[in-house]
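Dear support,

I submitted the protein below through the web form. The confirmation email said the job was done, but the results page showed an empty box. After a refresh the structure appeared. I'm attaching both so you can tell me whether what I see now is the final result or a partial one.
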Amino acid sequence: MADERNNDWSRSVGAVVINDGKVLLARHTYGNGKGLLIVPGGYINYGELPEEACVREVFEETGVNVRVQKLIGVRFSEKDWYCVFLCEYMGGTAHSDNDENSEVIWLEVEKALTAKDVPDLSRQMIKRAYAGFEKTDFISRNPARTSLYTTKED
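What the results page shows now:
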Protein backbone atom coordinates (compact mmCIF):
# COMPACT_ATOMS: atom_id res chain seq x y z
CA MET A 1 0.00 0.00 0.00
CA ALA A 2 1.02 3.58 -0.53
CA ASP A 3 2.43 5.76 2.25
CA GLU A 4 -0.49 5.88 4.69
CA ARG A 5 0.81 8.74 6.88
CA ASN A 6 -0.84 11.32 4.60
CA ASN A 7 -4.24 9.57 4.43
CA ASP A 8 -7.34 11.28 5.75
CA TRP A 9 -9.04 8.16 7.11
CA SER A 10 -12.41 9.91 7.31
CA ARG A 11 -12.67 10.73 3.58
CA SER A 12 -12.54 8.35 0.64
CA VAL A 13 -13.50 8.14 -3.01
CA GLY A 14 -14.55 5.54 -5.54
CA ALA A 15 -14.77 5.49 -9.33
CA VAL A 16 -17.23 3.91 -11.71
CA VAL A 17 -15.33 3.54 -14.98
CA ILE A 18 -17.36 2.17 -17.89
CA ASN A 19 -15.81 1.44 -21.27
CA ASP A 20 -17.39 -0.48 -24.16
CA GLY A 21 -20.23 -1.71 -21.93
CA LYS A 22 -17.89 -3.01 -19.24
CA VAL A 23 -17.17 -1.66 -15.77
CA LEU A 24 -13.74 -1.65 -14.11
CA LEU A 25 -13.67 -3.70 -10.88
CA ALA A 26 -10.94 -4.75 -8.46
CA ARG A 27 -10.99 -7.81 -6.17
CA HIS A 28 -9.95 -6.48 -2.77
CA THR A 29 -7.50 -8.30 -0.51
CA TYR A 30 -8.36 -6.77 2.88
CA GLY A 31 -11.08 -5.39 5.15
CA ASN A 32 -14.82 -5.64 4.59
CA GLY A 33 -14.26 -5.86 0.83
CA LYS A 34 -11.88 -8.81 1.02
CA GLY A 35 -12.57 -11.19 -1.86
CA LEU A 36 -15.20 -8.92 -3.42
CA LEU A 37 -15.14 -7.11 -6.76
CA ILE A 38 -15.61 -3.43 -6.00
CA VAL A 39 -15.20 -0.16 -7.85
CA PRO A 40 -11.63 1.13 -7.44
CA GLY A 41 -10.90 3.95 -5.03
CA GLY A 42 -9.34 4.80 -1.72
CA TYR A 43 -8.55 7.43 0.87
CA ILE A 44 -7.96 11.08 0.16
CA ASN A 45 -4.59 12.54 1.09
CA TYR A 46 -4.52 15.67 3.23
CA GLY A 47 -4.65 18.73 0.95
CA GLU A 48 -6.04 16.71 -1.97
CA LEU A 49 -9.41 17.32 -3.62
CA PRO A 50 -11.73 14.32 -4.00
CA GLU A 51 -11.43 14.42 -7.81
CA GLU A 52 -7.63 14.36 -7.58
CA ALA A 53 -7.72 11.44 -5.17
CA CYS A 54 -10.08 9.55 -7.46
CA VAL A 55 -7.78 9.85 -10.49
CA ARG A 56 -4.73 8.92 -8.39
CA GLU A 57 -6.36 5.97 -6.66
CA VAL A 58 -7.73 4.45 -9.87
CA PHE A 59 -4.29 4.63 -11.48
CA GLU A 60 -2.47 3.28 -8.40
CA GLU A 61 -4.86 0.34 -8.00
CA THR A 62 -5.53 -0.55 -11.63
CA GLY A 63 -3.03 1.08 -14.01
CA VAL A 64 -5.94 2.82 -15.76
CA ASN A 65 -5.95 6.56 -16.45
CA VAL A 66 -9.29 8.31 -15.98
CA ARG A 67 -10.87 11.74 -16.03
CA VAL A 68 -13.59 12.58 -13.52
CA GLN A 69 -16.90 13.38 -15.22
CA LYS A 70 -19.43 13.79 -12.41
CA LEU A 71 -20.35 12.92 -8.86
CA ILE A 72 -22.87 10.07 -8.75
CA GLY A 73 -23.15 9.27 -5.05
CA VAL A 74 -22.09 10.11 -1.52
CA ARG A 75 -22.29 7.72 1.43
CA PHE A 76 -22.14 9.19 4.94
CA SER A 77 -21.60 7.33 8.19
CA GLU A 78 -20.94 8.43 11.75
CA LYS A 79 -17.19 8.23 11.19
CA ASP A 80 -16.60 9.04 7.52
CA TRP A 81 -17.85 9.91 4.04
CA TYR A 82 -17.29 8.31 0.64
CA CYS A 83 -17.80 10.09 -2.71
CA VAL A 84 -18.22 8.10 -5.92
CA PHE A 85 -17.55 9.61 -9.33
CA LEU A 86 -18.32 8.52 -12.85
CA CYS A 87 -14.98 8.58 -14.66
CA GLU A 88 -14.10 8.50 -18.32
CA TYR A 89 -11.57 5.86 -19.39
CA MET A 90 -8.56 7.69 -20.87
CA GLY A 91 -6.13 4.81 -21.40
CA GLY A 92 -3.93 2.24 -19.79
CA THR A 93 -4.08 -1.50 -19.39
CA ALA A 94 -6.01 -2.77 -16.39
CA HIS A 95 -3.90 -4.86 -14.01
CA SER A 96 -3.72 -5.73 -10.33
CA ASP A 97 -1.51 -3.74 -8.01
CA ASN A 98 -0.75 -7.08 -6.25
CA ASP A 99 -1.30 -5.37 -2.92
CA GLU A 100 -4.74 -3.89 -2.30
CA ASN A 101 -6.31 -6.13 -4.93
CA SER A 102 -5.62 -9.57 -6.37
CA GLU A 103 -7.19 -8.93 -9.78
CA VAL A 104 -8.60 -6.10 -11.86
CA ILE A 105 -11.14 -6.88 -14.55
CA TRP A 106 -13.49 -5.28 -17.03
CA LEU A 107 -16.85 -6.97 -16.40
CA GLU A 108 -19.98 -6.52 -18.53
CA VAL A 109 -22.24 -4.03 -16.74
CA GLU A 110 -25.22 -6.40 -16.76
CA LYS A 111 -23.13 -9.17 -15.17
CA ALA A 112 -21.74 -6.78 -12.55
CA LEU A 113 -25.28 -5.80 -11.55
CA THR A 114 -26.13 -9.42 -10.71
CA ALA A 115 -22.79 -10.90 -9.63
CA LYS A 116 -22.81 -12.25 -6.06
CA ASP A 117 -19.23 -11.06 -5.49
CA VAL A 118 -20.07 -7.42 -6.34
CA PRO A 119 -21.37 -5.75 -3.15
CA ASP A 120 -24.56 -3.72 -3.16
CA LEU A 121 -22.81 -0.34 -2.79
CA SER A 122 -20.78 -0.97 -5.96
CA ARG A 123 -23.89 -2.23 -7.79
CA GLN A 124 -25.88 0.85 -6.76
CA MET A 125 -23.14 3.18 -7.98
CA ILE A 126 -22.88 1.33 -11.30
CA LYS A 127 -26.67 1.69 -11.74
CA ARG A 128 -26.46 5.41 -11.10
CA ALA A 129 -23.48 6.03 -13.35
CA TYR A 130 -25.58 7.99 -15.81
CA ALA A 131 -27.76 9.96 -13.39
CA GLY A 132 -27.11 12.15 -10.38
CA PHE A 133 -24.97 15.26 -10.21
CA GLU A 134 -22.89 17.17 -12.73
CA LYS A 135 -19.98 19.52 -12.30
CA THR A 136 -21.20 23.12 -12.45
CA ASP A 137 -19.14 26.19 -13.32
CA PHE A 138 -19.32 29.03 -10.83
CA ILE A 139 -17.20 31.96 -9.71
CA SER A 140 -15.22 31.17 -6.57
CA ARG A 141 -12.78 33.18 -4.48
CA ASN A 142 -10.37 30.23 -4.80
CA PRO A 143 -11.21 28.63 -8.18
CA ALA A 144 -8.19 26.34 -8.36
CA ARG A 145 -9.21 24.50 -5.18
CA THR A 146 -13.01 24.50 -5.39
CA SER A 147 -15.58 22.23 -7.06
CA LEU A 148 -19.36 22.54 -7.19
CA TYR A 149 -21.66 19.67 -8.12
CA THR A 150 -25.39 20.21 -8.56
CA THR A 151 -28.31 18.04 -9.60
CA LYS A 152 -28.78 17.72 -13.33
CA GLU A 153 -31.20 20.06 -15.04
CA ASP A 154 -34.03 18.43 -16.94
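Response: this is the final, complete result; the empty box was a page-load delay. The radius of gyration is 15 Å.
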